[in-house]
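Amidohydrolase family protein, Cohnella cellulosilytica. Tokens?
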Amino acid sequence: MKGVWQTMKVDAHQHFWNLARVDYPWLGPEYGPIYRTFEARDLEPHLLEAGIDRTVLVQAMDSYEDTDYMLETAAAHEWIGGVVGWVPLNRPDEAALRLEHYGNNRYFKGVRHLIHEEKDPDWVVQPSVIEGLKLLAERGLTFDVVAVFPNHLKHVPYLAERVPELRMVIDHLAKPPIRNKGWEPWASQLAIAASYPNVYAKLSGLNTAASADWSASELQRYADYAIERFGANRLMFGSDWPVANLNGDYGTVWRETNKMLAGCSKEDAAAILGGTAAAFYRL
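Tokens:
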């Protein structure tokens, strides 16, 4: 199996949403091209063109309806390797019951919460959420951290210390200030987070933090720094499709990501483009 993991190409972060089936309060007309239903048939041609073997379908709403919809979709498409769903981490008793339910589904790999939509920027470090995260660790499930800089990345070391058995991954490198060519304190905070061996990161969502005419060269400094700090075995590619369509498209993200990895060894590039995600999510 290890050999398969090393050669598999995995998009570790993509979304679907069906506006007729699930309520997404955050998604309104102001989001323009992504304010519509996006489902598997829309993504499949892009995966075939890029040669992607598996994807990880990530929640787009803190609701059971969204999680159930994703699991149903995964069961109908062989190329969806896993689902990152949702349970109410701040209500541990309820979360435990739902995890027992979802634990019977082979596609359910981990949990995410839209932390950046919470009014309290410190939502994720409250004691009840820590208890919820311990439930994930006990079950071998993962936690995707929506760490939108500057509010959330600083919390990752605290979580890593309180729940050291929990494998967690920072989505989108916590959205570094690429458009403004910013660096600190993002870089220092990412380095501290990366010093914990149970913390991983996604090389994803960078195009929507960049300028309108972005290319690999604009993102290279941030990607290189992430590789230096995490290493290829704790870093994974994700398209963040269809959010990526706000500043590009699937093919462009895939092509420019491969350009960013041109300086890596063949083994490291293979890990970032699939092997790490396959192992982390146990696809």
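Residues 2-280 form a domain with the TIM Barrel fold (CATH 3.20.20.140).
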